[in-house]
C-alpha cells in the first residue's frame, strides 16, 4: 500500500502484524493500534500536542529508576492498574478483595516473629495489628507468608526517605497454626503520591489532588490459594471517596481504634482484620 491516508493507515499498520506468530501479541498490538488511532482521530490531536505527549512519556522514563517507578504511578492515576486488578481478580463474595500493588513494595523485606515491632523507629503513634488468614470455609491457613508495608506519620514510605538505609514500617511475617499474625507498627496517615515528576504535573494540569487515604498494604501468599494483594484502609479518612489511584473498596475499610494510655502502653491504636483467601484457580 503506497497511498497511505488518514482513512486507511489503521488497516495498513494492522496488516503489518500478519506475520506475527504469537496470536495473543498480535491481538494486543492490533487492538492497541486501533484504539490509539481512534483517540488521535477523535481528539484531532495536533503535532505540537503529540510532541508534548512524547515529551511527557520521555520524562516519565527519565525519572524512573529502581526506587522510583513513574510508569506505575501513571498507570495508577489513570485507573488502568485498578481496572486490571478488578478484571483479573473476580472472587467469590466472601473472599477479601484485591487492590493496587503500588510502587513501594520491596522484595526481601526483613522477616519478623509475630508480635515484633516492625516500625524500625518510623515516626507515628503505635499501632497494634492483629489479623487472621482463612479460606472460604473458615479454615485457618497456617504458614501463609505475609508481606506488609505502609507510610509513616510523615506520609512517607522508608524508600522515599533520602539517605535512609534501613527498612522501616515493613516486614514479612508468617501465620501461626491458627492462621493468625500480629505485629506492632505505626498509625498510617493519608499521603500524597510523589508529585515532583511528570505524573504530579499531570495531576496539577488536570485539577486533581494527589492524595491516598491512610492504609496498610498486605501481600499474602499460601500454597493452594490465590495470592492476595490488598490494603486495609482507615475508616473515616477524608480521601476514601477520592483516592487518586481509585483503589478503595468498601469491604477493605476497618476501624483503627484509638486507645488512651493504659498499663504499659502509651496512647495507641489497634487494628483487627480477617483476610479470606480464595482457592487457587485451575
Ligand atoms: C501505594 O499505596 O503505595 C501507592 C499506590 C499507587 C500509587 C502510589 C502509591
Ligand atoms: Fe500505599
UniProtKB/TrEMBL annotation:
Residue stretches making up the Catechol dioxygenase N-terminal domain: 22-95
Cofactor: Fe(3+)
Keyword annotations from UniProtKB, A to Z: Dioxygenase, Iron, Metal-binding, Oxidoreductase
Residues annotated as domain Intradiol ring-cleavage dioxygenases: 102-277
Gene3D superfamilies: Aromatic compound dioxygenase
Cell inner membrane keyword on record: no
One Pfam family named in its UniProt record: Dioxygenase_N
Gene Ontology molecular function, alphabetical: dioxygenase activity
UniProt xrefs under InterPro entries: 1_2-HQD/HQD (IPR039390), Catechol_dOase_N (IPR007535), Intradiol_dOase_C (IPR000627), Intradiol_dOase_core (IPR015889), Intradiol_RC_Dioxygenase (IPR050770)
Family (UniProt): Belongs to the intradiol ring-cleavage dioxygenase family.
Protein name per UniProt: Intradiol ring-cleavage dioxygenase
Organism: Roseateles agri
Lineage of origin: Bacteria, Pseudomonadati, Pseudomonadota, Betaproteobacteria, Burkholderiales
Amino acid at each position: 500500500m503506497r497511498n497511505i491516508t488518514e482513512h486507511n493507515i489503521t488497516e495498513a499498520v494492522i496488516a503489518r502484524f500478519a506475520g506475527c506468530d504469537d496470536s495473543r501479541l498480535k491481538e494486543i498490538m492490533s487492538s492497541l493500534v486501533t484504539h490509539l488511532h481512534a483517540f488521535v482521530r477523535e481528539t484531532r490531536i495536533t503535532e505540537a500536542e503529540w510532541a508534548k505527549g512524547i515529551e511527557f512519556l520521555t520524562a516519565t522514563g527519565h525519572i524512573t529508576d529502581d526506587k522510583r517507578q513513574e510508569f506505575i504511578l501513571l498507570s495508577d492515576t489513570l485507573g488502568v492498574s485498578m481496572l486490571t486488578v478488578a478484571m483479573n481478580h473476580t472472587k467469590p463474595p466472601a473472599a477479601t478483595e484485591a487492590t493496587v500493588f503500588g510502587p513501594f513494595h520491596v522484595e526481601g523485606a526483613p522477616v519478623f516473629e509475630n508480635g515484633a515491632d516492625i516500625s524500625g523507629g518510623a515516626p507515628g503513634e503505635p499501632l497494634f495489628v492483629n489479623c487472621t488468614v482463612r479460606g472460604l470455609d473458615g479454615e485457618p491457613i497456617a504458614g501463609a507468608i505475609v508481606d506488609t508495608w505502609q507510610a509513616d506519620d510523615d506520609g512517607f514510605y522508608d524508600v522515599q526517605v533520602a539517605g535512609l538505609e534501613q527498612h522501616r514500617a515493613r516486614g514479612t511475617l508468617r501465620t501461626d497454626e491458627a492462621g493468625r499474625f500480629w505485629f506492632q507498627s505505626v498509625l498510617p496517615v493519608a499521603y500524597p503520591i510523589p508529585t515532583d515528576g511528570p505524573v504530579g504535573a499531570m495531576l496539577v494540569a488536570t485539577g486533581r489532588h494527589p492524595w491516598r487515604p491512610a492504609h496498610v498494604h498486605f501481600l499474602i501468599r499460601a500454597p493452594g490459594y490465590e495470592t492476595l494483594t490488598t490494603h486495609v484502609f482507615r475508616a473515616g479518612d477524608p480521601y476514601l471517596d477520592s483516592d487518586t489511584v481509585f483503589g478503595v473498596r468498601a469491604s477493605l475499610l476497618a476501624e483503627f481504634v484509638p486507645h488512651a494510655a493504659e498499663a504499659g502502653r502509651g496512647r495507641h491504636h489497634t487494628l483487627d482484620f480477617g483476610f479470606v483467601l480464595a482457592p487457587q484457580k485451575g
